[in-house]
Design a protein that fits this description.
heterodimer; A: 4 domains; six-stranded antiparallel sheet; B: 2 helices
């Protein structure tokens, strides 16, 4: 099987090299047959890597520890789903996983566009094959997961060896989210390859118009959404498993995942400038280039340990490969841009400071500033060592100082931007759109202030959150009211109809609302409390409204681990509320300890209790309790973000209501009335019934 | 053209503010990395900087006393005795032989007072050298 897997991987490498070379020759010689064959080779890569992945999984599932990689990351007792996820628990497997996910995207991009864009697709195929080649070089020749174990006998001859038991999966990774977090994040990292390839292809082929933007819009949103989910799941995992009471530490690996998401966000916004006004062409191309390069950089930071990180992945010699590849990508991008820069000339100029354009420009400026600050802070130890010779790192105060104001300004733009008109917004329109939300926000701020909400940033965040939420709701309300009065439907139906007519816009609003939720959750961290105390049975401690009484300590153990556990009863206002069982396990096979957090999460706050070990002096158990307000809003915001993104990807429904003749009116009114009882169903009925009569 | 100028001025103000904030954040949190062998060579103000030092925890050196945790870090034959005074419990990965990164200050008499300790369990995460056959006879079973 190992031969099978590595052979499939080698074939995949040959196929992608063929796709790359034949693709270029096909473009130069204009031979369609060759181009076609290159494309087919590019699609075949997916099948071949799938075989390699399947064969590696086969080793995991059959507990065959003759492969070094399997022996290092699995054991017999590991549950099945962790055997599956052990595939990406280490360096070699992660890179294979990267390759495979990329090959899925490549396959889909080539397959779905096989009959479209004949001028553009050959270039796209070549670029995708180029990226795939790099990863297959790593998979085959630098970090192959198919290395077999061998030992030398007395004569010095190597023999294959098979371990009877593997050393097991790191217990920290034995958590349900770790099964989905890396795939999500990697789907984000790899997904940005598609818009990158289309952008570079359009530039190289001087493909007319903004078509590449239309083609890649959904691809970008998919990658962006996966990247966002990946970042949030990572934060949630850190919160739920590591037991330090927080979810974000500005650790290099976290930052690495955040960076492409930030530039991806900037890109999703600034392409609208190009679509609507023909501006920012150079900027957009570079944004997508930079996003892709940050994905590669992110992968390399995660995999090479060049910046020391608590994630503590392997330090390895693989960094050189990544930086070489980054260098090549940069040179290619630079050359492509320089040679074709006349093709990217802007059609328009900025007309007014109070306009949609300028809000996008500020949005991009500020996102790029955030990206730069995070990148700078992450790489600072490396950069300072190069420049001054001494290695200096910066901590959370640096990141927070810069990023908190940036984030709040972004929140402000989230409310303001979408309601500004293109080109120029009149004072009248400003008043109409913003007066009430602004008043609402200020009232919320005043109420907050009256209730003792005194720190500056959280107060600003409160005001802005209310402001933005109100602008979003007023957008839905005003649009829906027009439809409702025209169609005679109820408001809720009209909201559905409105959303489906311009899913991109209203899905975007939903995503904006999700960001508000996430911001509220993050702002809650300004009010975190924690307390740490040694507890005997019968003693208690108090945090916020809760009193935690220690009922018992025990040491439950299984074959897999020994453990120390506290049984705590939580009281609120003298009433017993719940039992919590924080625990600390020592895994016997790996001798790794793991904290099992007891977290009681409500929308108001999380009561997060950790068994922190025994006190060195008294040998009494130490309980560390945190009261973290509003954390749940972050995870909930993540779910809303996914829903909003999905909504924005649905094609618009375009019933030509405006063009309806007066004669049809009673018809749809009657339908609307009859469907009034089931608002959810009525938009579908009314639009399908209406269609035959409508002029389109 | 006027709008463009306004935009540039606005951007300038934003960027300048952010740079100022970045500088403040930088001075508040900058931490120097030093190796244990470098420490005796430090002089003047560099002695009092906040710094990070990494090394391996010497087996058997961890002791608990008066709410502090004392241990010895080793790196390339040099030692550094560290006293951890932080409130947070030490990470699970902190134990004999682990690779630890301590953050804090040097004491005049030569010891190191750490406010933070990070540790990685060297044996567990690290992949084997790439390309080389991985296992030695020692950890092979007879199957």
């Amino acid at each position: 099987m190992d031969i099978f897997g590595s052979f499939a991987l080698l074939l995949a490498f040959l196929a992608t090299v063929y796709a790359f070379v034949a693709g270029i020759v096909g473009i130069v010689t204009r031979r369609t047959l060759l181009t076609k064959s290159a494309r087919n080779a590019g699609m075949a890569v997916f099948g071949l890597i799938t075989l390699a992945v399947a064969s590696l999984e086969y080793f995991f599932f059959t507990d065959d520890f003759s492969l070094a990689y399997v022996a290092a990351h699995s054991n017999h007792a590991l549950p099945l789903y962790y055997k599956f996820s052990a595939l990406w628990a280490g360096q070699e497997g992660s890179l294979l996983w990267w390759s495979w996910l990329l090959s899925i995207y490549v396959f889909l991009a080539l397959f779905l566009n096989r009959k479209k864009h004949p001028e553009l697709m050959p270039y796209v195929g070549v670029i995708l094959a180029g990226v795939q080649t790099f990863f297959l070089v790593l998979n085959n020749f630098v970090a192959s997961p198919f290395h077999v174990l061998a030992s030398a006998d007395s004569a010095g001859v190597m023999h294959m060896a098979r371990l009877s038991e593997g050393s097991g999966l790191n217990p920290l990774l034995q958590y349900p989210e770790m099964v989905i977090h890396p795939p999500m994040l990697y789907l984000g990292y790899t997904g940005f390859t598609i818009p990158f390839a289309f952008a570079l292809a359009a530039l190289l082929g001087r493909y007319p118009g903004e078509k590449w933007i239309h083609i890649t819009r959904r691809w970008t949103m998919v990658a962006w959404c996966f990247q966002g989910i990946g970042v949030l799941l990572g934060a949630h995992w850190a919160y739920a498993v590591l037991g330090w009471g927080g979810y974000w530490a500005w650790d290099p690996v976290e930052n690495a995942a955040l960076l492409p998401w930030i530039t991806g966000t900037a890109f999703l916004h600034s392409v609208m400038m190009q679509e609507k006004r023909g501006m920012m062409k150079v900027w957009n191309v570079w944004l997508v280039f930079v996003t892709f390069m940050l994905c590669i950089l992110g992968t390399s930071l995660t995999r090479t340990g060049i910046v020391s990180s608590v994630h503590a992945f392997a330090e390895s010699s693989i960094g050189g490969w990544f930086f070489g590849f980054l260098g090549i990508v940069f040179v290619v991008c630079l050359t492509a841009w320089y040679k074709n820069r006349d093709y990217l000339r802007s059609d328009n100029q900025l007309d007014s400071l109070v306009s949609r354009e300028s809000s996008f420009l500020f949005n991009n400026l500020i996102l790029l500033a955030a990206c730069f600050a995070v990148l700078w802070g992450t790489l600072f130890p490396v950069l300072s060592e190069w420049v001054t010779g001494s290695k200096i790192s910066v901590g959370p105060p640096f990141f927070n100082k810069v990023n908190v104001p940036i984030a709040l300004f972004l929140l402000f733009l989230t409310g303001v931007g979408p309601l500004l008109a293109w080109r120029k917004t009149s004072v009248d329109a400003l008043q109409r759109n913003f007066a009430w939300p602004l008043v609402g926000g200020l009232i919320a701020g005043a109420v907050g202030f009256a209730f003792g909400f005194r720190s500056f940033y959280p107060l600003v965040c409160l005001i802005l959150s209310v402001f933005v939420t109100l602008t979003i709701f007023s957008e839905f309300y005003r649009g829906a009211r027009v439809i409702a009065s025209r169609d005679g439907t109820n408001l809720l139906t009209a909201v559905g109809e409105l959303t489906m007519r311009n899913t991109r816009r209203y899905g975007g609003y939903v995503v904006h609302f999700a960001m508000v939720l996430i911001f509220v959750g993050i702002a809650g961290s300004a009010f975190n409390q924690d307390i740490q105390k040694e507890l005997k049975v019968g003693q208690s401690m108090t945090i916020g409204p809760y009193t935690i009484l220690c009922q018992n300590f025990d040491q439950p153990s299984t074959d897999n681990y020994t453990s120390e556990r506290a049984t705590l009863e939580v009281f609120r206002n003298g009433h017993s509320q719940m039992m919590l069982y924080p625990e600390r396990r020592l895994f016997l096979a790996s001798q790794v300890t793991e904290t099992i957090v007891a977290n009681e999460s409500t929308p108001v706050h999380d009561l997060y209790v950790v068994y922190a070990g025994r006190s060195p002096d008294t040998n009494l158990p130490v309980i560390h309790a945190y009261l973290n307000p509003l954390v749940k809003w972050i995870w909930f915001g993540g779910i809303v973000m996914v829903l909003g993104t999905c909504l924005a990807m649905i094609p618009d429904r375009r019933p030509a209501i405006v063009l309806r003749t007066a004669a049809e009116r009673p018809w749809s009114d009657a339908i609307a009335r009859s469907a009034g009882g089931s608002p959810a169903a009525s938009p579908v009925t009314s639009s399908t019934v209406r269609r035959p009569g409508s002029p389109d | 053209m006027k709008a463009r100028k306004k935009f540039l001025i606005g951007s300038g103000i934003i960027v300048a503010t952010l740079l100022a904030l970045a500088y403040v954040g930088y001075t508040q949190s900058k931490t120097y990395y030093h190796t244990i062998s470098e420490l005796p060579t430090l002089q003047g103000s560099t002695l009092h900087q906040r710094m990070r030092v990494s090394g391996n925890v010497r087996a058997g050196s961890i002791s608990h006393r008066d709410g502090r945790v004392n241990f010895v870090l080793e790196e390339q034959g040099k030692d550094l005795s560290v006293s951890y005074i932080g409130n947070d419990p030490l990470p699970d990965t902190f134990k004999d032989g682990a690779q630890a990164l301590v953050e804090g200050r040097l004491m005049p008499e030569g010891g190191f007072v750490a406010e933070q300790v990070q540790a990685k369990c060297a044996s567990k995460y690290e992949a084997s050298p790439i390309g080389a056959p991985v296992a030695s006879d020692k950890n092979l079973n007879k199957s």
